[in-house]
Design a protein that fits this description.
Elements: E1 4-9, E2 14-17, H1 19-24, H2 29-32, H3 43-59, E3 63-71, E4 74-86, E5 92-101, H4 103-125, E6 130-133, E7 139-143, H5 161-164, H6 167-183, E8 191-195, E9 198-202
Antiparallel strand pairs: 1-2, 1-5, 3-4, 4-5, 6-7, 8-9
Length: 203
Amino acid sequence: STDAVFVKDLPGKCLFINPAGATAIGKQVEDCIGQDDTALFDQETAAFIMRDDQRIIQTGESQTNDDRCTSNGVMKTWFSTKTPFRDASGKIVGLVGIARDVTERDQTANMLRESEATLASLIAAMPDDLICLDANGCILKARITNQALGESVHDLVGRNLDELLPDAALQLWRGAIRRVLRIRYPQAIVYQLSVQGERRFFE
């Protein structure tokens, strides 16, 4: 297994760890056995893990978390589940846990959040009207300043293009949507709408 599996006694000393778990923190299995977290992690990480472990032992309840731990100067994010370890009589004698390295997932999520924030800032600075559609032409979000669909933003969200556009403009929009979904590349269209009795061109 690539997951780290470990067992600790009540004081927090390692009774068992699998090779994947030892390798993940830059240690050999024999280096971990009999050691507590202060010998395996930096001071801050060790204190956090030991508090977490004692809470599980004291409450007798399992716990699942995303934990950030630093060992040998490397910070990783672990998706871990820990549960009390009981003897044959049911007495808690330690804890057993399994942890999966999800650092790459965590980094990807952070990059995605940063990318979304950057995109939102760029969109906010654009003077153009913006409309977010699903594949069927239903409006999910809108920011309208020039009434590109002849309606205010409050009247647009949740409605379909079929309800809003004359047939000629509708066909242009639907054709552009199909092409964007097919080739994954922006498409430009020019159409006319009557806004407050005035014929206007939109792109």
